[in-house]
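Look over both lines before class:
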Amino acid sequence: MARTANTVKTAVLLGGLMGLFLAVGSMYGQQGMVIALAMGGAMNVVAFFFSDKIALASMRAVEVHAATPGPGGALYQMVDELRQRAQLPMPRVYVCPQEAPNAFATGRSPKKAAVAVTEGALRVLNAEELRGVMAHELAHVKNRDTLISCVSATLAGVLAFVAQWGLLLGGGSRREGANPLVMIVVFIVAAVGAALIKAMISRSREFVADHDGAVIAGNPNGLMSALSKLESLSQRIPMQNPNPAQNNLFIVEPLTGRGLTNLFATHPPMEKRIAALRQMDRGLFG
């Protein structure tokens, strides 16, 4: 069921991106339509096949293996044990040279999946907490969340670029009779819509990944402790060179905001996530 739902969501997002490009291109006549078709097709290919590589590259992730000395090798072995409990193929495992403690999963299918954790998380989390975090990321892989997550992150970045591009070029459409004010509204709505789509997708799936991750780990205690710790530290240690379009990939919101920015939060409130895990602990593990 989760696989089918995420496949439909991915198709809708990719189709929406193509539709947006064509709508923008139509404002510039036949030549604009041809350019828009080429750009939309290229962006769809990039989003589907390369969004995971983009995410890993932006975090400067380094792959680790069982033979990697130190925490990297121990992390690989932990993931290997957890993925067997989850009945998943072995994902690629990465460590990101970031002080901000966080983790994420990516990849268009379980066979192409990767899980990553920052050096900051490896330092501040104990073994039980790290186990809970990695189980949460493997739950995203098992539930086929990683494709929709990466695609939505890539498309959000594309839509933001399109909005800026349209605002810069809007004045040139006067000869075609287009209303620049209407174009500005269209591009602003497109950018806001991208943020709202990300928030809608991320908020619902985090509760499910928390629940399933606790089952994979064997209990919710490590994940509850890790979420509380990561939430507190993420508000004090900013992500280096953060890309807001990728916020929905992480286990906790890597960037915090106040006021209107909270409307675009990609994660549900942490107190609600922990409360759900606590209720699960009493119900299933109590």
About this structure: The chain has nine helices and four strands. Residues 170 and 183 are 7 Å apart (CA to CA). Residues 171-175, 256-263 have pLDDT under 50 and may be disordered.
